[in-house]
């Protein structure tokens, strides 16, 4: 674990200056660049609203401080998932070539796609491209919508037994006539790079146990917090959404990192009262703009997992992607936030590559 690419990258980033001057600053309009501050109130970043409060309450006489405070109202830090994901991919590529040179093994990822959903086809294509770029060999199986469960299970079994395959991913959602549970259970746990196997989730939930793989999207969320030096230990974290693939494992991961965690879901009464207590919010519900500015505590750090298409006639695609969080409002109150697109999405794919490399290293006992 100590030599895993992600760990190494983390150490590297901690050693260097915070990414304010590079990644996030690039995303900010030029004029605002000079007003990024680091002030530890809640998050590690300057929190516009709380600084404003401090300024008005105490008798600062320096006009420059006041100017800085006033002009930095909108200086939320944009957490650049695209940039971080690229850094991680570069690191993974280097590790893969080191492994290939030293033991002649190339990591392999098998992807099973059932049906003709356009979004799924796009995701699978993107995963394949990402694999190629870092030197992972990808093996793709596309089955028609009306395939039987047995056919899918047959492919899984073949990949389970195939030594050139180190990771197996069954693209979700599966057609409704298939039993998702039965199919995901068939992936052998040593190759479950999605981390969806119940044994993996069970270990994730238990103290003193280690899962073989951490699910990619939640892992990507935590990785972003680490790389932007957001302290998790002792903080209040609220996860919005309780899905098996994001919300629940994200909550477990935050708890493993010593946060005090609450989960807000569709049956929660007054969810905004709970999210307003959060130093860290991870939202994964799939509802565009559900988390409003009024749900956010000043200075909170927001990780927005939602990738929701909304109609947009000005866009050539006819739609644009928005998160679960109302970015317009929340970015005025939070200290840091992930954009959509360009936030968690690219991290999910980077973590899939990371898990595939991890699997190949473990199977071949390569340190
Ligand atoms: N077994 C399985 N594992 C998955 O990990 C899995 C899955 N099934 N089914 C579907 C979801 C969705 N998912 C995404 C990955 C990357 C982006 C991504 O890179 N999004 C870009 C935007 C891309 C665009 O512009 O369309 C971004 O947010 O910047 C999005 C979504 C993985 N999933």
Name a few traits of the molecule.
single chain; 367 residues; three-stranded parallel β-sheet; 14 helices; 42% helix; binds 5,10-Methenyltetrahydrofolate
Structure explained in plain terms:
- Residues 215-362 form the Tetrahydrofolate dehydrogenase/cyclohydrolase NAD(P)-binding domain.
- This is Methenyltetrahydrofolate cyclohydrolase.
- InterPro entries: Aminoacid_DH-like_N_sf, NAD(P)-bd_dom_sf, THF_DH/CycHdrlase, THF_DH/CycHdrlase_cat_dom, THF_DH/CycHdrlase_CS, THF_DH/CycHdrlase_NAD-bd_dom.
- Keywords: Hydrolase, Multifunctional enzyme, NADP, One-carbon metabolism, Oxidoreductase, Photorespiration.
- It is a single chain.
- By secondary structure, the chain is of the alpha/beta class.
- 42% of the residues lie in helices and 13% in strands.
- The chain has 14 helices and eleven strands.
- The protein has helices at residues 5-15, 23-27, 48-57, 63-71, 81-103, 118-134, 149-161, 180-186, 198-205, 216-227, 247-256, 271-275, 327-330, 344-363; strands at 77-78, 108-114, 137-143, 167-170, 236-240, 260-264, 280-283, 301-304, 308-311, 319-322, 336-337.
- The strands form three sheets. The chain has a six-stranded parallel beta sheet with strand order 1-11-8-7-5-6. Strands 3-2-4 form a three-stranded parallel beta sheet, with helices on both faces. Strands 9-10 form a two-stranded antiparallel sheet.
- Helix 1 (5-15) packs across helix 5 (81-103) and helix 10 (216-227) packs across helix 11 (247-256).
- The termini are close together.
């Amino acid at each position: 674990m100590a030599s895993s690419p992600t760990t190494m990258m983390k150490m590297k980033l901690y050693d260097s200056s915070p990414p304010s001057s590079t990644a996030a600053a690039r995303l900010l309009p030029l004029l605002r660049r000079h007003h990024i501050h680091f002030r530890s109130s809640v998050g590690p970043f300057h929190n516009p609203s709380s600084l404003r409060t401090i300024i008005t309450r105490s008798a600062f006489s320096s006009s420059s401080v006041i100017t800085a405070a006033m002009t930095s109202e909108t200086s939320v830090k944009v957490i650049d998932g695209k940039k971080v994901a690229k850094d991680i991919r570069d690191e993974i590529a280097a590790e893969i070539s080191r492994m290939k040179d030293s033991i002649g093994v190339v990591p392999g990822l098998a992807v099973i796609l059932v049906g003709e959903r356009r979004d799924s086809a796009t995701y699978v294509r993107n995963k394949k491209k990402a694999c190629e770029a870092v030197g992972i060999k990808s093996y793709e199986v596309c089955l028609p919508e009306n395939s039987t469960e047995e056919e899918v299970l047959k492919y899984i079994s073949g990949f389970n037994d195939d030594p050139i395959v180190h990771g197996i991913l069954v693209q979700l959602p599966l057609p409704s006539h298939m039993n998702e549970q039965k199919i995901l259970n068939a992936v052998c746990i040593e190759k479950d790079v999605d981390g969806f196997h119940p044994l993996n989730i069970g270990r994730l939930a238990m103290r003193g146990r280690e899962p073989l793989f951490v699910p990619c999207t939640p892992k990507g969320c935590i990785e972003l917090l680490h790389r932007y030096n957001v302290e998790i230990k002792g903080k209040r974290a609220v996860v919005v959404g309780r899905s098996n693939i994001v919300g629940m494992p994200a909550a477990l991961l935050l708890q493993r990192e010593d946060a005090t965690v609450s989960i807000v879901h569709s049956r929660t009464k007054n969810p905004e009262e709970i999210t307003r207590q959060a130093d860290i919010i991870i939202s994964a519900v799939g509802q565009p703009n559900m988390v409003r500015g009024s749900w956010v505590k000043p200075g909170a750090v927001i990780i927005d997992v939602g990738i929701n298409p909304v109609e947009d006639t000005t866009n050539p695609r006819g739609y644009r992607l928005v998160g679960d969080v109302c970015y317009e409002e929340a970015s005025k109150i939070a200290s840091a936030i992930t954009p959509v697109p360009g936030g968690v999405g690219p991290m999910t794919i980077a973590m899939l590559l990371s898990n595939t490399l991890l699997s190949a290293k473990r199977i071949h006992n390569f340190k």
